[in-house]
Amino acid sequence: MTTTLNDLTAGVYRDLADEDKAVFSTAQVQDFIRGGIADLNRVAPTDTFEDITLVTDVDTGKVIQFSYATIIQLPYRVEIRRLEDGWVWNLNEPVDGWVGSGGFNFYPTSDGGRIDFPIWALAEFPAATYGLRIHGYAARPMPDPVTPDTDLPLSVEEEYSVRAYARSQGFDTLAHDRSLFAQWQGQTNNTDVSPTQMMQMAAGAKQEWDRHRGLIRTVRRYW
Question: pTM for this one?
């Protein structure tokens, strides 16, 4: 089962009892969704891996680049893999970010990380036979409103978490914006909902979101 930004947007509109889009703009709802994904990345980043494509000289086959960008934000293992059969040898664990033998440095960046190898470690590395793979935690990409039908890498549980966040933000907005709340009452036929009840709905939505994010929180593995 997959979901898209359009699916999430429609779901949040239903959660906010605004299916006709009479109160919240699509941009507002999608901002709530992006906030939910950002929060999901903080509490439960994706446990994944990335193969590093080594840059080599076309004539000699020797590695000529020793620093590589990666989607990984928090690594817990770097390994050398034999391409023909997948045999693995783990590189030494870093001590204070560095190992004197076969080691590397890792630096977080705004959109992932950067892994640096000492020149001597890769200068004679047999890139045609072996590859490098980095395991760790990465952020899910933000949905692009230009392509809202693109599948998003969210499980059913993760989709629920994002919608819980968006619902909490939407109800909180209504609880603190009397003009918007009055518009919501009239446009969605919810005139029986009082400002006090809306405050309670906002508090309940936040509690539900807090409870769920506690259940899905990832305990990170480290080196």
Answer: 0.84
